[in-house]
Amino acid sequence: MKFVFLIAHDDTFAPTPKLIRAITGWVKTQSRRGVRLGGEPLKPAGEAVTIRIRRGQTQRVSGPFSRSREQVCATELVEVADFDAAIALAATHPMAAVATIEVRPVWEDLV
Fold it and tell me: What CATH code is carried by the domain that includes residue 47?
């Protein structure tokens, strides 16, 4: 099963060189294992543009789609046996110790 890890932190977060090395190591290990299919760090939410089409009109708003204390800062796409395996894998990600990781199943029937 495929899962997306939505990694989020608040605006006071600043990664340390040690954390970046740990994340790089995690990415390499999980990629080598064939578990990690992809993923990317994201620029700050303040650089986002949100698009909605309502009643045929395009609405463009600067900033993220949601106004919350925590914003998505990275994603990871993984493939593991089941939800329990995805949760266990997310717990090994270095960001789990300093941020929040939402584990969400990919709706593969729609793709």
Answer: 3.30.70.1060
